[in-house]
Amino acid sequence: MAMVRFLFSIGPILFGIGFIAPVLAQSAQALAINTVFGIHIMVVCLILGGTLGILAKLRGRWL
Amino acid sequence: MNIDCANCSEDELKQLEKAVADRHLNHFPTLPVIWAFTNTACWLALWPLVLAGVMPVWLGFLLATANFMLFYLPSHEAQHSIIARPGEKLRWLNELVGHASSFPMAIPYRVFRETHMEHHKHANHPEFDPDYGTHARTPLAAVWASIQSRQPKPFGKDHPYGVALLRRGREDLLIEALIYKAVYYTVLVALAWMGYAIEAALLWWLPLHIGTTYLHFYLSWAPHNPNLAVGRYKDTRGFRSRFGNILSMGMQYHIVHHLYPRIPLTRTPAAYREMKPILEARGCEVHAL
To answer: Would you say B117 and B262 are in contact if contact means Cβ atoms under 8 Å apart?
Structure first.
């Protein structure tokens, strides 16, 4: 139960990395955007998704 | 049928109201049963069609959004045991409809039922009504309140459904809800990393959010707002939707549902029309419809 609680407590970060990042990356790739400033789009989206997740975790809301 | 209730006593109003309700209670809700299985089957069918490239993802998204707008109401009929009560022959069907139309929303049927009963018991109570979070002054504010109610910490607090379950001593349902959420997010993440992120977002994640906003608006905000109080004849109203009865999901007549929750959705308009003079005599807000 403690593990479950921990996972849900960091849920927004996991969601940011696990779901938002690939959604953004695959959307960008569909628009033929494969790199940003020479960095692979997946890396960029992982940073973006992770940051959004951390912010959502700290603020308690995505929007 | 016209009833003159202007000079009726409390007892007479009660009897007249009950007589109307009795005519509409205990009818099998055929449409919601067909609706439940058809809607769930349609949504499930979208997955192979879209993933195999037979259907474009934008069309799958539109259909999935419609599916999610339609998932809740058959479950709602089951929550009130309208299809069959405990112990009745078709109880299995009642429960099957409830589960089949709830699981795509990633909330267990039993959680919906428990929290919905709390809503009926405490409708419009700021602390005890689990659906109170959708209260807002304007339609636009209601949409924003709905979005806010689905944040990690809705309005800076714990989720009202979880709070209601703990208050009711139903930790078992809280665990069930956590399992559903865990499975939902695991499937989304798994699909995303298998290369189907856009499909997962447009067939499940986004339609669920749009459908929930729509449901909150018509099932929770419109019939219980604005300025309604707590109490059997005060906590909901009859209202006229500019989009008509079907697109507002029959909620114009929600007052009948709160008075007699086991009247099937499809019979509430007729029950409302028969009951309206009684409701007017009781001072209910039914003038718009």
So the answer is: no
